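Open question from group meeting: does this chain pack into something compact, or does most of it stay loose? Before anyone orders reagents, we agreed to write out a predicted structure and look at it together. Recording both the input and the output here so the notebook holds the full record.
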Amino acid sequence: MTDISVIIPVYNASAFLEKSVASALPFEEVKEIILVEDKSTDHSLEICRKLAEQHSKVKLFQHPDQGNHGAAATRNLGIEKSTGNFIAFLDADDYYLPNRFDIEKKAFENPTIDGVFGAITVEYLTEKGKQEFQSKFTNVSLTTVNYPAEGKEVFRGLLGLTTKTFGTFFHLNTLTVRKSALQKNNLKFNETLRVHQDSDFIIKLAFHCHLKSGIIDQPIAVRGVHDDNRITKIVKYSPQYNQRQFLLWNSLYDWSNKNKPDRDAMQHIALQKKAFELSTKKGFSKTAALLAAIVKDPKILKTKYRFTYTHS
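Structure tokens returned:
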């Protein structure tokens, strides 16, 4: 296994990009590092060009119209341009640790394994970023799963349907997947989602492909937390948070109706979608719709949406 394409979407990451690329360069397994620049307003494009000139592994691409299309479309373009048999992802403000690909070579000797994932830790780059992150993700220094898992257990675990507590989502930075598995199942990032497109992609990937946990008790990558992390800016259970969650679960709902996972999974996805759909309503219409939904299926009260949230 010596041909991994590392895909880095780049948008306003001039302060972090060089460290991110430097962390991927030393690996013999990494055939190429694909930078897809998404019309940054800082000096990111200039840095991308410099890195591509300095390192033969680094390749630079932009969207055909050189416009800004978001992380999903940017990663999709990276996959399209990749030439490796394996795909790995890295955010431009994050970096790999030296053990990043320790498990992959042995794991992928098994042709039934489509993807391997591991654990990621956080590094606080600013005090404000630290406070915002910890207010949303309490006591989360290591994003990982709680026990070794593979196959459908991963899919069900990500939906919270396993008998044991599965743990948190694994991060895209820790995933290595066969490109052929993405092509076979026509798996791409949903370009209509400006956030949560990674969660959407991972859940669908876990259903269609045979994923296996790798190193889950120590980090293989580091997530940089700073003032400009978009995902930590939104107050949990606020109207904006609920709207974005609705878009995520609506995407999964449409997908589940086409792909028909097991009944529990379809019901769970439908309830999550309905719960966050209700969260966008206000006043009496919201109360009436909620009561009707509870009568139809009381399990809706166990969804991720907090019905006790009173702001509108």
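Observations to bring back to the group:
Confidence is low (pLDDT under 50) at residues 308-312.
The CA atoms of residues 111 and 178 lie 10 Å apart.
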